[in-house]
Design a protein that fits this description.
- The structure is a single chain.
- With 316 residues, this protein is α/β, with parallel strands linked by helices.
- It has helices at residues 6-21, 79-87, 104-116, 136-156, 175-192, 208-218, 238-249, 274-284, 301-315, and strands at residues 48-51, 91-93, 120-121, 124-129, 160-165, 195-199, 223-226, 255-258, 261-263, 269-271, 289-292.
- It starts with 5 loop residues before the first helix and ends with a helix.
- Residues 1-13 and 20-32 have low confidence and may be disordered.
């Protein structure tokens, strides 16, 4: 069993207190047999969001390992206002690693700053967890981590969290183990009215067809897919990527990541056919948000995000 430090224990109490004190409206998405419910907007621009990932070099946080100190910085509390001001978008999709703190005081400040900007959280991006590891303590730590951020999602009014999947050395991804343990996390999300999204990202650990198999085996409507338009083209081709995205959209709830270029590990730049990606989303009946995730690390994230917004509005 994991031993928690005094700081972690007090932090958990603080988050729990905030969850208990959240408004009835924030908790109005309470679990139901039918699954999560959310009143999605229908106007094209209102369906757009911006993730903090492309701006990672600018965000000050002790857990943001990709901060570039040679560039001007910002606190994540200021991100929503910047997105409204620069892009006219009122939804954000921040990463957990970009929060300066998860103390109750900071979370309250962050929530107030987002509300003041006239913005909303539409997803929280989490780091990786070990859900098929043979070491049970690593699995339990991963579930505890996911539960902590589900509680934070309640506090901040996010309808979901995105849970990444880490691998373990010399251990192949295992559908049965992953389903058993992610099912536990989804069960917890259901008690809070928070969906747990799985994204097609890592070629080894987050293969889209593996993710779909896990979701279908769990059979909990609070465990859903987060289709990324481009990640699955790495190591494959456009046809494979389109099949992967179509399969993921069959299980999507509220979030998809939009990108029109993806860089492979070998430096190769892949182009994504956005017209086909949005057509796949439409054909699936998807009604959720599309979050801009500019991928070119050598480019300007402000220019890139503006371009993705223009292209997305064109297809919506």
């Amino acid at each position: 069993m994991r031993n928690f430090s005094r700081r972690e224990f007090l932090g958990s109490l603080a988050i729990g207190s905030l969850v208990a004190g959240s408004s009835a409206a924030a908790l109005g998405r309470a679990a139901s047999v039918a699954g999560p419910h959310f009143d999605f907007p229908t106007a094209p621009r209102q369906r757009l969001a911006v993730t903090s990932y492309p701006f990672r070099e600018l965000i000050d946080s002790p857990t943001n390992q990709e901060r570039d100190k040679s560039k001007p910085g910002m606190d994540l509390k200021d991100f929503a206002a910047m997105v409204v001001r620069r892009f006219g978008v009122h939804n954000i999709n921040p990463l957990g690693a970009h929060f300066r703190s998860t103390d109750s005081g900071y979370l309250q400040e962050f929530r107030a700053a987002v509300a003041k900007a006239g913005s909303h959280l539409v997803d929280l991006g989490l780091g990786g967890g070990h859900f098929w590891d043979p070491e049970l303590s690593r699995v339990q730590a991963s579930i505890d981590y996911g539960k902590k951020w589900i509680d934070i999602a309640v506090v901040l009014g996010s309808p979901s969290v995105r849970q990444h999947l880490n691998g373990s050395p010399h251990v192949r991804p295992d559908v049965t183990r992953a389903a058993a343990n992610l099912g536990r996390l989804a069960d917890y999300g259901a008690t809070k009215g928070i969906a747990v999204n799985l994204e097609n990202d890592s070629l080894r650990n987050e293969d889209p067809f593996f993710i779909v198999e896990v979701i279908e085996k769990v059979g909990n409507p609070y465990l859903r897919a987060l289709p990324d338009f481009g990640n699955s083209i790495r190591g494959h081709d456009a046809a494979y990527n389109q099949r992967a995205v179509a399969k993921m959209f069959q299980h999507a709830f509220n979030m998809a990541h939009v990108k029109d270029t993806v860089a492979g590990d070998d430096g190769k730049l892949y182009k994504i056919d956005l017209a086909k990606m949005f057509a796949i989303a439409k054909a699936s009946g998807y009604r959720g948000y599309f979050s801009m995730e500019w991928e070119d690390s050598a480019g300007d994230p402000f220019y890139g995000t503006e371009r993705l917004i223009r292209e997305s509005l064109r297809y919506l």
